[in-house]
Design a protein that fits this description.
Blueprint: E1 4-5, E2 60-63, H1 65-69, E3 73-74, E4 84-86, E5 93-95, E6 98-101, E7 107-111, E8 118-126, E9 131-138, E10 150-155, E11 183-190, E12 193-198, E13 201-207, E14 218-225, E15 228-237, E16 241-242, E17 252-254, E18 260-265, E19 268-273, E20 277-281, E21 288-296, E22 303-309, E23 321-325, E24 362-369, E25 372-377, E26 380-386, E27 405-410, E28 416-426
Antiparallel strand pairs: 1-2, 3-15, 4-7, 5-6, 6-15, 7-14, 8-11, 8-15, 9-10, 9-14, 11-12, 12-13, 16-28, 17-20, 18-19, 19-28, 20-27, 21-24, 21-28, 22-23, 22-27, 24-25, 25-26
Length: 432
């Protein structure tokens, strides 16, 4: 049974000198954020929402425990457009667990996070008048489908590129029968290869050997002509490299001055502490996806994953961004996290909901790309944040885009956590 549900026309380009421009809603920092001199206020448009789940429950995502453990995340939570941004005024909205659009000029609803190599699953439903698509590795405003994106066409009308084709790149050999029922796609992008199965049958097997190979970009849902509906949108990152071997701490080092104990127990990293301490990777990353599974063996324990961190020393053990681990919440309401909440970027923005429990394993997925940071806990997105501060070498003081270490935190004498399945995938900074 599911563990958690939360259920061809293109536009003008914003891709400059081959570099992906990240644009998305930027939730303002909460009151506990460190004040920054002369910060510019950012106006945020609240996305349209359906019924918000009650504050005392963990929203369903439709992902099983096995899928969560395998790294799957929900791109659509089933009740809001959190983690998405439209590039024009199409009437994207959510009704009964479905993303819908049926009016406005052709446009896209895009993920605020870019992705490179992944498997994507989604359901869609067309009308006889519908012309739509799903844009893969796209820029925010694509102009040319053979340069700016891969457009997986969704159209049952007479068209040069029937459903399952890549517009301008590859036509399916045998068009599928027209349908007004829900249909399901599974799409896999790995390097230059793109494969797609429609309703369980492979319809696309394409390798991009052109000079326009795209390596990274957003995922976009298109409203072109007629009404379009999407639901159950899930993604599993590919090409993830293990950074903990389950045997010893090779590739890791304890930060000087740490007063925490890190040891390998039952193929996990177990941490206890007298006072704060950190175990950091020897390798560094700038733009990347990170996944790890953790368990806090006590009530509302405090820990975290630090990233893009300066090499730790006794004078500064943890100068990095921090994905918070703290499963406490107030008034029996998971939308009121204590101490920012698991999945928050500590001192920057709170998790919108606490979806993990103490004494249970939970999986964190972190996307860091340029100034944009997103976090999913057990497949449910809890953070979508853009660092609008002035650049600084130290992420505690300002925006840091440079590569840095990933580290695990021991916090205080109550610390008692286990970590396993730590993986990273580097995201290309530029696309040709």
């Amino acid at each position: 049974m599911p563990r958690k549900t939360v259920n061809c026309i293109v536009l003008s380009a914003l891709f400059l000198t081959g570099c992906l421009k990240v644009e998305h809603p930027s939730p303002p920092a909460k009151s506990h954020a460190e004040p920054q001199a002369k910060e510019v206020a950012v106006k945020v448009t609240k996305p349209e929402t359906a019924a918000e789940p009650a504050g005392n429950i963990i929203p369903e995502t439709g992902l099983t425990d096995e899928e969560i453990a395998a790294g799957w995340i929900a791109l659509f939570d089933g009740h809001s457009l959190f983690g998405w941004k439209a590039n024009n005024d199409v009437n994207w909205h959510v009704e009964q667990g479905v993303i819908k659009a049926d009016s406005g000029k052709p446009g896209l609803l895009l993920t605020t996070s870019p992705f490179a190599d992944y498997e994507l699953k989604f359901d869609f439903r067309l009308t006889p008048e519908t012309n739509s698509g799903v844009f893969l590795r796209t820029i925010f405003d694509p102009k040319d489908p053979v340069k700016d994106c891969y457009e997986l066409n969704l159209c049952d009308q007479k068209t040069e590129y029937p459903t399952g084709s890549l517009v301008g790149r590859s036509k399916i050999q045998k068009p599928v029968p027209a349908s007004q029922e829900w249909q399901s796609f599974i799409v896999r992008l790995e390097g230059p290869k793109i494969q797609a199965s429609l309703n369980g049958k492979e319809v696309l097997n394409f390798t991009d050997t052109s000079e326009n190979l795209r390596k990274v970009g957003f995922i976009g849902l298109q409203k072109n002509a007629g009404a379009i509906e999407f639901r159950k949108i899930y993604l599993n990152p590919l090409r993830m490299s293990t950074i903990f071997n389950g045997v010893d701490l090779a590739g890791w080092r304890v930060v000087p001055g740490s007063k925490s104990k890190f040891e390998v127990v039952d193929s996990t990293i177990h941490v206890t502490a007298e006072k704060q301490g950190y175990l950091e990777t020897e390798e560094t990353w700038d733009n990347f996806l990170f996944q790890a599974t953790a368990k806090s063996n006590g009530k509302a324990l405090n820990s975290g994953y630090f990233f893009r961190a300066i090499e730790g020393s006794e004078k500064g053990m943890a100068n990095g961004y921090e994905v918070q681990i703290h499963n406490g919440f107030k008034d029996k309401d998971r939308t009121k996290p204590e101490n920012a909440g698991t999945g928050a970027i500590f001192r920057r923005t709170e998790a919108r909901r606490v979806v993990s429990n103490d004494n249970e394993w939970f999986t964190t997925t972190l996307s860091a790309y340029g100034s944009h940071i997103a976090v999913w806990i057990d497949g449910y997105q809890v953070t979508d944040w853009n660092d609008t501060r002035k650049p600084d070498e130290n992420p505690r003081k300002g925006l840091r885009l440079k590569a840095g270490h990933i580290s695990l935190q021991g916090h205080d004498p109550t610390t008692d956590l286990n970590f396993k399945d730590l993986k990273v995938s580097t995201l290309p900074t530029e696309s040709p």
